[in-house]
Amino acid sequence: MKATLFAAAALGSLLLTACAEQPQPPRPVSVKPPSEIDGIWYLDQNWTQDARQWYYNTTQGSQIMRYDWFMALQDPQTKAPFVKSVPRYGYTAGSASKWNPDLLPVGFVKDTDPDKTEWIGMTCASCHTGDVRVNGKTLRVDGAVTTGDLYGFISGLSAAVHATVTDNAAFEAFAARVLGPTAIDTQKITLFNQLKAFDASFATFVAQSTPDTPWGPMRTDAFGMIFNRVSVIDLNLPKNNRAPNAPVSYPYLWDAPHQPWVQWNGLLANANSFEALGRNAGEVLGVFGKITLTPPKDAAHYYYNSTVRGQNLVAMENQLRKLRSPVWPDSIAGNVDIVKAAAGQDLYKQNCESCHAVLPRDMTYTTAPITMVPLFNWAKPNDPKAVIAAFGTICAKGIDAAVEAKMVTINYAADPKMAVDALCRQSATGAIAGVAMPPKLLGGTPLKDPDLAATLLSNAVIGAVFGDIAKNPDLIGDLLLGDDAPAPWASASSANWSGSGKAKSTKTIDTSPLVSAAAAGKTTDQHRKIAKILTETAKTVSSVKESTANKAPLSKVDAAAKAESDLADTIKRLLAYKARPLDGVWATAPYMHNGSVPNLYEMLLPVADRSATFKMGTIAIDPVKVGVDSKAPESTFVFDTAKPGNRNTGHEFGASLTDSQRWQLLEYLKTL
């Protein structure tokens, strides 16, 4: 259990000695005023328009369906091209640019296979780019929360495909757009059979992705969707499917590349570019990336083939490292009350700063500190056996059983479903049971059957990264260049850019110790090349060896006790949610990890005084309470906090404030 939980807890632990910390760009003291382009107001977030459009329109390897099919598909409700209906599901409409000749929505992109087959896919911009409307003006906030409804989109796409294969007139029109007006019947029959097969498989995917309680806009069960994708579709094991019932808000991305741990529960380490690549590769697999999960056939091909575009992911991460939080736009949203904000600053220091660090705009920062806030009070927190037993009870019997048994003395403060699902879910590992990724020679642990779903995902992600490096060794140079890498949009000629392929690190890397170790294991040249990526310098390996060389080996009893203690510490750390810096928080409603609180004012109220239900779905914000404008006509989805996974409890740190103090603190939050 220890090995599997550790593997799930940090993909980066398998890439422990990867890459030195990258230099950080300075945070500007001041910002430029908002600028208007084609009716959209853009805030100064340290991105140029070219950088922004490149980020919106560059593929990561997601492949939903054939590109020509998608562009030819008609929406049965509107009778318009389906691509024009995507914003109807809350996604941001795209704008004309050299990067987006087909006017795809933001974050919907063309992906091209080596055999030139073209696919429509999604990229992280689709879920992490948000429009905000205030006082009649629409602001584009890069890295913010989309109003997109992912389930609405995939179910709508499935309905459009099904309508096409069940209506002859609809199919004839579709075929004419795909094949041309002179296509012969045999071509149409072939196309029909292909589309019908896709209709069946995609309908199954949608059915398997249907939550018991609708997510609605602005959130999704990210882990549930990724686990289902890898364990059900990629492994072809329907019995692994679980309803994705732990939705979370899309995290905002500024400062995220600088945080030591990512995901709401801090599941993944984020210390270097290798760990970031692993995390982003997992995201691709969750949004229609493809991976072939079969045992490696030999040491020369010890990886999984996938559609993950590693060089693009590295370039995107470098770009995100430059992204800065949006400053409250006084000229559009109204001036901040400085007198109240000054009083609120003191209240923030007293009530908030211990968890939510402040990142001053006039200082360069090298990390964005976070605090992991525990979800449980353990009855015996210093007793590893008791913590492990309580965790086992939570996974096997549920949280209430652990509380009743006094293993967890007080019930959760915030809704724990996401964190518990991420750590407890088990999956059959099918064809890759027993496969270690990386190989055992490099410290990997073979998959059990069943194993933790998070461990299975970690195995798949590492194999996909290895496969991308095996096919494109220049990815190693891109990883090591980091912020020194050239801006991709400066030399790329199309949105399907696949990395420079020529970037070379200026650093001297001595990997001979690893090569020797690999050679001792009788691995091949290809395998040794892959092994090199696990460290930036031999010094790191040497320092680890030196730190342990003079220590006496632990006895079996002591080693078992240490393993038990480490496991208990990992459980306590991961059954928690992350408190991060709140710069730009005004643009990130709704609040809490699951989007269960509509505005910042209610975040400062006792739980009993928060909205039990509220409407959402609009890009309009309430500039007074700072959050979702539930009265806007487009706010049609009713968020019910009584539904599973929607609990709005916890975070009552403003409950003891007076109402005047709440408004002062709220005014200060606008300035962060």
From TrEMBL:
Domain Cytochrome c residue range list: 339-460
Stored InterPro entries: Cyt_c-like_dom, Cyt_c-like_dom_sf, CytoC_perox, Cytochrome_c_Peroxidase/MauG
Domain of life of the source: Bacteria
Protein keywords: Heme, Iron, Metal-binding, Signal
Residue ranges that the Swiss-Prot or TrEMBL entry lists as coiled coil: none
GO molecular function, one term: electron transfer activity
Signal peptide coordinates: 1-20
Key word Signal present: yes
PROSITE patterns attached to this UniProt entry: CYTC (PS51007), PROKAR_LIPOPROTEIN (PS51257)
Entry protein name: Cytochrome c domain-containing protein
